[in-house]
Amino acid sequence: PLPYIEVNDVRVALANLSCAFYRYPAHHLCTIGVTGTDGKTTTCNLISAILEAAGLQTGLMTTANFRISGQEWENSTRQSTLEALEVQQYLRRMLDAGVTHAIIEATSHGLELQRVRGSNFDVGVVTNITHEHLDFHKSLAHYRRAKARLFEMLDPHRDKGIGIHPVAILNRDDVSYDVLKPYCRVPILDYSIDQPATVRAIDIQLNAHSTRFRALLPEGETTIETQLVGRFNVSNCLAAITTAYSQGIRPAAIAQGLAEVKGISGRMESINEGQPFTVIVDYAHTPDSLEKVLATLRPLTSGKLMVVFGSAGERDVQKRPIMGRIAAQMTDFFVITDEDPREEERTRILQEIAKGAEAAGKRQGRDFLCIVDRTQAIATAFAKAQAGDTVILAGKGHEQSIIIGRQKLPWDDRQVAREALRRL
Q1: What's the confidence (pLDDT) of residue 140?
Q2: Comparing C-alpha atoms, which of 420, 418, 368, 374 is closest to residue 395?
Q3: Which residues 6+ apart lie within 8 Å of 116 measured at CB?
Q4: Looking at domain 269-422, which CATH architecture does it have?
Q5: CA atoms within 13 A on the CB side of 69
Q6: Residue 135 dihedral angles phi and psi, to the nearest 5°
Q7: CB contact set of 366 (below 8 Å; sequence gap of 6+)
Q8: What is the pLDDT of residues 55-88, one digit of tens each?
Q9: pLDDT tens per residue, range 145-160
Q10: Residue 136: per-residue pLDDT
């Protein structure tokens, strides 16, 4: 028989062995973990941009992209936080490439399943905590508890000898503030739009192509101009600004870094093939993110606001009618379609979303349609759109595949949109 070692927890053992195999790279890096329901990828990229503007070398692991010392590529794994062995491998690659600051998107799955164990986080950042992944965590309380693990991992006595001081970055405007605060044993810095905080945004000016606001910091203020659109992106910017401030980054570098970000893959990404209406691709796949995207685009739309969206199969079923209700209340017309049905019955997913819309007073066939095939759903929405309208393709964002049954098929909302627009 083959020899084996029996352990109490295979995932803990894998993480510990991975750290040892790659010679504990996190011991020599400033590691920044970003958690939350929505906005993690954007916030990670914003933090990276600011630190790079300050002359630091960054590494990045997010749902959408990887970056090591200026070299960037898309995350095609469909996994937001990689397994422990891969996380440590990337950290080692970063360290060997001269990276000083590693920014990791730390999902609730990644935290619960020990994928980021041994990452020795110096900074923990939260964007927000809303309704998501209850298929896995079973309750909102358990979901919040998983997020809190990031902040429990911040050790006030950790000293890597690289001049980094552990700190927690919390969102004063979100319910997560009171949830996470008791788990923090390190100093807390907070950010806010609506109330006093370490970093606060005032004089917010929003338009269809950019955002401008004044960021109030303890040492003064700086004017921020970014090509990211929407109030929710102001909050993401504040999370990044507060993180940078915690590491001693000057306001000039903060403003420069945010100004240099042209956009985040699959996040509020505009598709223009010369059509007379606006097309936006966004990763919004939770009730909160869908609501925020629609709220952002409503005042920027002179005509009708439409959305094409679905909900993943074999995942959080409780959010389906909620998303249907949000679409019913906030749009003029919408099409419910596939997202990633997996092996779940496709029409059933659509009808569960539709129940929420019907409960809000909308009628299928008049106010919305259910079209299983996502290509056809997108084409149908475009055919209905007129000058001044906005059509949002929500849920897939940057993703390069769609999972139907057991098949992982090539897919890109942006490319499908371009092809459909050219056929008009």
Answers
A1: 84
A2: 374
A3: 33, 81, 84, 87, 104, 106, 110, 150, 153
A4: Alpha-Beta Complex (3.90)
A5: 11
A6: -65, -35
A7: none
A8: 999 999 999 999 998 899 999 998 889 999 999 9
A9: 999 999 999 999 999 9
A10: 67
Who contacts 295 (Cβ-Cβ below 8 Å, separation ≥6)? 231, 330
User: In which residue ranges of the chain is CATH 3.90.190.20 found?
Assistant: 269-422
CA distance 1 to 15: 26
For the chain, where do the domains classified as CATH 3.40.1190.10 start and end? 10-260
Residue 416 has pLDDT above 60, yes or no: yes
Tell me if the pTM is above 0.90.
Answer: yes
**Share above pLDDT 90 across residues of the chain, in percent, rounded to a whole number:** 92
The predicted structure's pLDDT at residue 131:
67
β-strand pairing of 188-192 with 167-171? parallel
Question: What is the distance between the alpha carbons of residues 88 and 102, in angstroms, rounded to a whole number?
Answer: 11
How buried is residue 163: exposed, middle or buried, by Cβ count under 10 Å (0-12/13-18/19+)?
Answer: exposed
pLDDT value at residue 297: 97
- Convert 368-418 into a string of H (helix), E (strand) and C (coil): EEECCCHHHHHHHHHHHCCCCCEEEEECCCCCCEEEECCEEEECCHHHHHH
CA-to-CA dists, residue 353 to 168, 337, 373, 391, angstroms: 37, 10, 15, 19
- The class that CATH gives domain 10-260 is alpha beta
**Average pLDDT of the residues in 329-352:** 98
The answer, yes or no, to whether residue 100 has pLDDT greater than 70, is: yes
Selection from 395, 206, 217 nearest residue 310 by Cα? 395
Write down the residue that tokens 């409503």 correspond to. Answer: 298
Contact in structure between 191 and 238 (CB atoms under 8 Å): yes
Q: Is the pLDDT of residue 137 over 60?
A: no
pLDDT tens profile 219-265: 899 999 999 999 999 999 999 999 999 999 999 999 999 999 999 99
> Which own/partner pairs from 352-356 qualify as long-range (CB within 8 Å, at least 24 positions apart)?
352/311, 352/317, 352/320, 352/321, 352/324, 353/310, 353/311, 353/320, 353/321, 353/323, 353/324, 354/324, 355/320, 355/321, 355/324, 356/320, 356/321, 356/322, 356/323, 356/324, 356/325, 356/326, 356/328
Q: Could you tell me which residues are beta bridge partners of residue 357?
A: none
CA dist 218 → 87, 172, 215, 243, 246 (Å): 35, 16, 10, 13, 11
**Amino acid identity, position 215:** A
One-letter identity of residue 326 = I
